[in-house]
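Quick one:
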Amino acid sequence: MSDDEGNREEQNPKIYLLPNLMTAGNLLCGFVAVLKIVEGALLQNVDQPMAAERFEFAILLILTACIFDALDGRLARLGGHESAFGREFDSIADIVSFGVAPALMVYKVVLIEFPTLGWIVASLYLLCGALRLARFNCIAASNPASASKEFRGFPIPAAAGLTASLTLFMLWFAGSGRELGPLRWVLPGLLIFLSFMMFSRFQYPSFKGLNWRTTRSIPRFVAIVFILVLTVLNYRWMPAVIFLVYLLYGFLRPFLSRKMQRGIEEEILEEDEEDEPPGDGANL
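Output:
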């Protein structure tokens, strides 16, 4: 590509339809989640069950945004359509869906009782999330291969997913009364902890190598289908288990052998094989 063509592409970046539609879905889910949280806050002093329903719907939207976020990058990589525009658009969507929405939700559910401390904790999570996204974009721009294999620090979509799914579990556990009681005090501490984890040195697999061409043995395929069905049937608590396991895996990962890591993160091994030189039979 000539310098003139490169300059024209920078001035008029290409917008690939399917990946960016997924990112747009992510952004819209985050925006509507914010609206539902505000509605729930307005109803909180009038009708507690109705307020809880708004919060629950907002939580489901945040979790749906996680699905859209997982799909956009995979569609881009599958079609060979990764772009700087898509990376920036994805970060803008992420800061709304996984930064603003979870912070506002925890603030309205719990932290509003402590106005000064509340907005400080919520703002800390939002700030750390934004800084983490900016750092990731810098790493991805300078070293795309490294950014595609693993995350340094807990990724913000997983942080938002854990916060949202744990809140959903608490609402379900509270029952028809919809009063979280003492359980709600877990959420502020979780936000502070996740703010630290997003900038920690713990390494997390990105699973970005997992795509439509990824192969699995029959037992693993059956296990994955079983987990998916179990998650759908028990959506009020199973997502919290999945995100919590992912969080804890970052602590256990340094103590696992390389062979065991590859057994768990099988797509990394497949990706390494695809990246081998053409002389070794790789399709570059």
